[in-house]
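INFO  loader      accepted 1 record
INFO  loader      residues=227
INFO  predictor   begin
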Amino acid sequence: MGKLLLLVLLGCAWLSGGVNGVLQGKSLVFPSATEDSYVTLQPVAFDHLSAFTLCLRAASEQRRSYSLFSYATSGSDNEVLLWRNEDATLSVYLSGKIFRFVLPDITALMRHLCVSWESTSGRIAVWLDGVRSLRHVGHQGGQLRGGGTMILGQEQDRVGGKFDVKQCFVGEVTDLNLWDRVLTPTEIRAISQGGCHKAGGNIINWATVGHESSGTVSLRDNEDCTI
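INFO  predictor   done
INFO  writer      dumping tokens
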């Protein structure tokens, strides 16, 4: 009876969200296109960002456009948005400004993706499987506002909602981490090699981040993990 009660409590905790540690060694699977399946991440609070690196692993067989990561604030519903376009290019939105990168497409094979930006130079770079894109320059001297909502699986047209089923993500996401600095090329290459990076981000650490799920999202063991 004790073990049964523990399993029930753990199941209820996952359904209600916000369970620390449960994502370590796990993947989030979004099995089908819906407008109500998503995961809200609960990062370490910050007032603003003048630099960041966001890394994740993802796989999808969808050929339409979709959101890989959505961060919305009261000032901009696209404060940070990673958007896979219908032509297989990747758009990075920073405070509503759009920067498009021509990259190999995300496919059913798991890809490691990082995006970095820093305010002083305005340099924006995308890394795919440890290889850097050419750099763009944008949002120079700007900041990214804190206090917003971070969501996987949907694109926010207002903070925390107004989702469109035609923009949802269908596939698998894991190992998402966010730092408040630009990682070095050596660090990014090391993270891209092998699954379940142990040294997580200081704003989002996949191993410990609180989260809340909705809809048909499922949690699966990540067979790529080396931990």
